[in-house]
Amino acid sequence: MNEPGLSGAVALVTGAARGIGSAVTAALARAGAVVAGIDLLPEPWEDRGEKVTRLVADVTDPARMETVVEEVENLLGPIGVLVNVAGVLRTGAVTDFAEDDWNRVFAVNTSGVFHTSRAVARRMVPRRSGAIITVASNAGGVPRMGMAAYAASKAASAMFTRCLGLELAGYGIRCNVVSPGSTETVMQAGLDRRAVLEGDPATFRVGIPLGRVADPADIADAVTFLASDRARHITMQDLYVDGGATLRA
Ligand SMILES: NC(=O)c1ccc[n+]([C@@H]2O[C@H](COP(=O)([O-])OP(=O)(O)OC[C@H]3O[C@@H](n4cnc5c(N)ncnc54)[C@H](O)[C@@H]3O)[C@@H](O)[C@H]2O)c1
Fold first, then answer.
1. pTM of the complete model beyond 0.70
2. 196 in ligand 1 pocket by Cβ < 6 Å?
3. Are 34 and 76 in contact (CB under 8 A)?
4. Which residue, judged by its Cα, is nearest atom 40 of ligand 1?
5. CA torsion angle 225 229 232 235 (round to 10)
6. Annotated catalytic residue within 102, 106, 114, 150
7. pLDDT tens per residue across span 30-61
8. Which domains are present in the chain?
9. Is 171 part of the annotated catalytic residue set?
10. CA of 126 to the centre of ligand 1 (A)
């Protein structure tokens, strides 16, 4: 079903090879968008049956992000929607946390969002339209054991996106954040499912009040809404899609 404002719009999604990024590309395509996905991973990507132009690029490389954005515009036309999904999770206690892990988490989750958003925003500004959505994490809003680097990188990317929303509002460009909780993807595979669902007092973690781990499509639905004209008066917001897991504290 075509969504208002998305029919024929060019959408660029990072981290598109699998998981949430793949679900976002499929949802946007079903909503009528012409979709390009970029990912570090070469083929094969998850195939959800929708047409997606696939490009390989690393969001940590600012020069490459400029050229790949240019490539997408040359191939498909002006980008109207950007969704920053690429992300990495590295866990561990701060006292044992390696410099390389810290740097990688920030390079992808925070600097990657900056490089991609800057390259796209530069092109959206003269056109005075567009929507940018960053997929952050509910870990960016509540302290979590073993997740200091990841949570800090996501809090930074969320605030970056909201500040960008303020800078770009005068051009009619909206910038919002979707913060998922635990979602059924490769990234989630290493985590203790019972603790995720039921909570774990030993790590001061509450469970998921709605009693289920999210499907990537749940996150993609929120992104599609925020990208569409149905959200035309919504900017600088951070929508938690986590089944209540953070009690929105
Ligand atoms: N799965 C969860 O429970 C969960 C919860 C909260 C937030 N998130 C966030 O949602 C986003 C997607 O997560 P997912 O669960 O689908 O993870 P995933 O690991 O399944 O997919 C992430 C994708 O990003 C790509 N990627 C990683 N580094 C990249 C880089 N430098 N350049 C380009 N692409 C790169 C990967 O190759 C992969 O295809 C991430 O930002 C993640 O932090 C996930």
1. yes
2. no
3. yes
4. 87
5. 40
6. 150
7. 999 999 999 999 989 999 999 999 999 999 99
8. 10-241 (3.40.50.720)
9. no
10. 30
